[in-house]
Each structure stands twice: as C-alpha cells, then as structure tokens.
Amino acid sequence: MYFDIIGNISNIEVIAIGNSIRELSRLREQYGFGRWRKLKGIAMVRLANESIRKAEVHWYEAHGIGKRKMKIKYFLD
Q1: Do the Cβ atoms of 52 and 45 come closer than 8 Å?
Q2: Residue 60: its pLDDT value, please?
Q3: Which long-range CB contacts under 8 A does 32-40 form with residues at least 24 apart?
Q4: What CA–CA distances, in Å, run from 65 to 12, 29, 58, 72?
Q5: First and final CA of the chain: distance in angstroms?
Q6: What's the pTM value of the predicted model, to 2 decimals?
Q7: C-alpha distances in angstroms, 51 versus 3, 11, 41, 46?
Q8: For position 21, what pLDDT does the model report?
Q9: For the chain, how many helices (H) and strands (E)?
Q10: How many structural domains comprise the chain?
C-alpha cells in the first residue's frame, strides 16, 4: 500500500530494540549494521486514492540509516 505521511508523527513509542526484533537479520542484510529499533506512532497519511486518514504506523529505524519499512498497522478514524 502506497502512502505519504502528512505532518509530524506523534505518540512515538519503542516496541522492540536489537535482538528483540524478529526481522533483525534481514534489516542488517539489506541496510547495514546499526542499533535497530522498531517504533510506532500516530500520523495523518495520504493514501494512493488521495484520501487523508489518521493511522497508527510502524517502522524500523537505526542511527545513521533512518526510517525504513514504514507500514500502516490500522486506521484510527
């Protein structure tokens, strides 16, 4: 599903760090070594059909690498 984040992500929480991440080996293989964290937050998103909705988004992040594999977990409106 294609989407764009509109504005800032709020209520950011860390879900998992390091070896607690199930996909850690794949992240390291694709993007490199780093202190990987899985995070979640609330954001307004613009979907492919141009509708704008409030959603909970999840993504992986590492220092020096940035946000990767962002996905919408569910819609809040």
Answers
A1: yes
A2: 97
A3: 32/62, 32/65, 34/62, 34/63, 34/64, 34/65, 35/62, 35/63, 36/60, 36/61, 36/62, 37/61, 37/62, 38/14, 39/12, 39/13, 39/14, 39/15, 40/12, 40/13, 40/15, 40/73
A4: 18, 13, 16, 21
A5: 18
A6: 0.89
A7: 10, 22, 20, 6
A8: 95
A9: 1, 4
A10: 1
Per-residue pLDDT tens digits for 25-40: 999 999 999 999 999 9
> Which residues span the domain enclosing 45?
3-75
Weakly modelled stretches of the chain, pLDDT under 50: none
Give residue 26's pLDDT.
Answer: 96
Residue type, 22: R
State the burial class of residue 69 (Cβ atoms within 10 Å of its Cβ: 0-12, 13-18, 19+): middle
Q: What type of residue is 29?
A: E
